[in-house]
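subagent[fold] <- orchestrator: predict structure for attached chain, return C-alpha cells only, no commentary.
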Amino acid sequence: MKRSVLLNWLPFENTSTGAAKRSIELHERLADEFNFVAAVTEGFPLDTAPGVEKKVFAANRSLAVRISEKSPGFWERQGKPDVWVTDTLPVPGFRGDTRTVLTVHDLRFLASRKYLSLQRFLFLKLSMKSGLKRADAVVTVSDWIAKQIIETYGISPKKLHVIPNAAASFPYVESLDFSGREYILTVGHLEPRKDHRTLIRAFATVARKWDGDLVIAGRGALLGDLKFLADELGVGSRVKFAGGVSDSELSTLYAQSTCLVCPSVYEGFGMTLLEGMAAELPVIASSIPPHMEVAGDVALWFESGNCKDLAEVILSFLENRQSFIPDAGVRRAQMYNWDDSAKKLASIYRGLGA
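subagent[fold] -> orchestrator:
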C-alpha cells in the first residue's frame, strides 16, 4: 500500500520560485510510489504536476492561515497523512504516526537582517531551532548549509540529509529581441543578496571597453534603485531589465547571451550556475561557498562584492573567450540531476516510521 504524503505548497502562489520548481520536479518523479496530496491556495495553477493531487486548503496565505498552520488539526481535516512535508516553518506537532520532513533552503536570516522583512526575520530567528528539533527529518540543498545547521543548532547528522537541486530543462523559444547586440546576462530576483549593484558598477567599467549590453532578468522591489544607479553611472541605455520571464524566454536568454554572471553575496545553493553551465554558457560567479560547491573549477571566480575584481574578470573573459570549453560546464551540470535527488528523497519517505 502506498504511503500518503501531504505536501505544504501553500507558500507557492505560483511555480516561478526555486523552492516551488524543486518540489514539483522531485515529487512528479515519485508519484508512482507515493500518494501525494498538495495543500495549495486558490491562486495555485492546478494543472501543474499532474501526478500530484491538489487540494485548496485556503484562499490565500493570510496571517490567520499562517497562524492556523501551527495546528495539526488544520492539516488533518481530510485525514492523517503518513508523512507531512514542508519547505517553510512552522512544523506542527502531530500526534500519532504522522512523520514530518522540513526542507531548509538557506539560513539567510543568520547572514544579514537586510535580506528579509523584519517580521520574517524575527519569525525565523524565533522558530528555526524548534522547527528543526520537531521535524523527524531535515533536508537541505548543499553541504555548506548542512554544516551551518549542524554547527548552529546541534542537529544530529543522522537526521540531516543533503539533496541538491538540479538544472531545469527549458524549451528554446526565440521570443526576445535586444537588437542583435551582444549581452551579459544575470538572472535573479531584484533583492539585496543578489547584489545587482556590484554587477552594474562593474559593467560601467566594462562598457567603456566593450560594445555590448547587460540584461537583468528578474523582478523585485529594487528595480527603481537599480535603474537609477545605471543612469547615474552613464549606462542606463545599455542595462536592460527584462522583468519576470517565462521558462521559454529564460531559455532564449541563456542561448543568446555572451556569458552569465552570478554576483550574489548569499545563496543556499547555485541553481542559476547549473542552468548556465547546462546551457553551455561561460559562467562568472562570486566565490561564495555554495557557488564554489556547485561549479568547482568550471566557473570564473571573483571576490564577492568587489566590483573592480568583477570588471577585471569580465574583461579578461571577453578578451580570451576563444579558450572557453563548454563541455566542461555541461559535464559539471550533469553531476546534479533530479532523478538522483528524487531517489534520495524517496528513501527518506520510506524510512520514516518504518
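orchestrator: received. Logging for downstream: Residues 183-334 form a domain with the Rossmann fold fold (CATH 3.40.50.2000). The chain has two domains: 3-166+337-351, 183-334.
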